[in-house]
Amino acid sequence: MTELALSVSDNHQFIWNNIVGLLKEELPKQTFITWFAPLKSLSFENNTLTVGVGCNFNLEWLESHYRDLLNRSACAVIGSGGKIELQICENNQEKSTSKTVQKRRRKDDNLPAITITTSEQTKMKSQLNSNYRFDNFIEGDSNRVARAAAYSIISSLDNKPVYNPLLIHGGSGLGKTHLIQAIGNAIVDSNIDKRFLYVTSEEFTAEFVRAIQSGKVDAFNKLYRSVDVLLIDDVQFFMTRDKTQEAFFHTFNTLYNNGKQLVFSSDRPTSELNKFDKRLLSRLQWGLTIEIQPPELETRMAILKSIAESRNIVLSDEIISIIAENVTDNVRMLQGALTSLFAHQSLLEMPITIDMAREVMNKINIRVSNNIGVETILELTARYLDVKSDMIRSKNRKREIAEARMIAMYLSTELTNSTLKNIGLKFGGRDHSTVLHAKNKIIELINNDDEFKKSIDNIREQIERFNV
Ligand code: ADP
Ligand code: MG
Prior knowledge:
Elements: H1 2-7, H2 12-26, H3 29-36, E1 40-45, E2 48-53, H4 56-78, E3 83-88, H5 99-109, H6 121-126, H7 144-155, E4 166-169, H8 176-190, E5 196-200, H9 201-213, H10 217-224, E6 229-233, H11 242-257, E7 261-266, H12 278-284, E8 288-291, H13 297-310, H14 317-326, H15 331-348, H16 354-370, H17 374-385, H18 389-393, H19 399-415, H20 420-426, H21 432-448, H22 450-467
Parallel strand pairs: 2-3, 4-7, 4-8, 5-6, 6-7
Antiparallel strand pairs: 1-2
Bound molecules: adenosine-5'-diphosphate (ADP) and magnesium ion.
């Protein structure tokens, strides 16, 4: 990788294209389109790629949500010491221009297809991944109720909603996005005269901020309040932005009072949406809340079979069992494991054997347990708990900071081979006994509090996913 970077050190676009390739693999499509597609590579010097961002809001969002990912991608493509620097760039600055120009430019920039000036069904449709459908969503005990609830929405669209709002929650990679997009795809397929909108809460936020900047909040409200079904993915990201919560709250009220259907997903239960405005939280709890659990063995096997079939690859039951027994956490990781296996097969140009499957599974498991660093754990834990990582390293003793610090320390002891002493050093130069105390304290909490244990499991899962 480093050699490659040296020989093309003047070609920043080439480096950026490679980084974009990695980002696309790692991020959900919508997230990529919203935050990364509009970026422009500007220059490459001293191992640092400078990338232009359209406005300050986007720059701050990228820094606070994706700094780790940018760092990792830079190292992967440029080599160790590689960096990406973000910089406001006049050229792709959002300016409020005439309607037509704005529309065209958005299309060119590959920004989210929803604009605040239009709301045709075609635009709504283009937000969806057409692979996310009810008929290819494999059912098992872990997700049956969630699927049934999502499906029931389609059949009751002409009546007053039965479950409103419907909130599907569960760890990452368990099929939440698949299910709520399946509702949109089913509406498109059935050609019924219903308007829906699918957005992630990040896109909702970005659209709202743009609307404020360009003085088009009325148009924003009109669009979001004109639909029959509003599907918002990953509502947990509303946790940090008060004004957006306010906009969401009013949109919610208008639609709800008009008997329109609301469907949300969240990576955690409402009890853990602790930065949510109380009124908003109680609205979310009005309807039906359903959890998707990690898939049990049978479902994992059925999912693997279905993926293999869709790629026209025949796998023996034994090979499917090996994968399903080794990769237990979520469906995204199952897909990743299969992709690794298929990649091995084509690189080695030989059929997939049981030994090959075992070897690939071993590699995946080793990667999870060995490669992860204390810093990454600290950053991801901070992000999950919505505290600043600098605060975790600082001497701040506020309860939520202290707890986040202890959790990150505990996870570092669990997920890395670092010694207590080294972990302490990375947490702002603390003593090994502090780390030991944190570890024992968190173990005690995990043993006595199921809800707490669940959130720790969620964080752990996100960290492991990040690392694969
Ligand atoms: P989440 O939104 O919960 O993080 P996704 O909906 O993005 O998870 O699911 C991750 C991947 O796994 C997607 O490609 C999705 O199609 C697939 N997937 C998840 N659950 C199932 C299932 N029960 N059947 C088939 N594919 C699934
Ligand atoms: Mg999702």
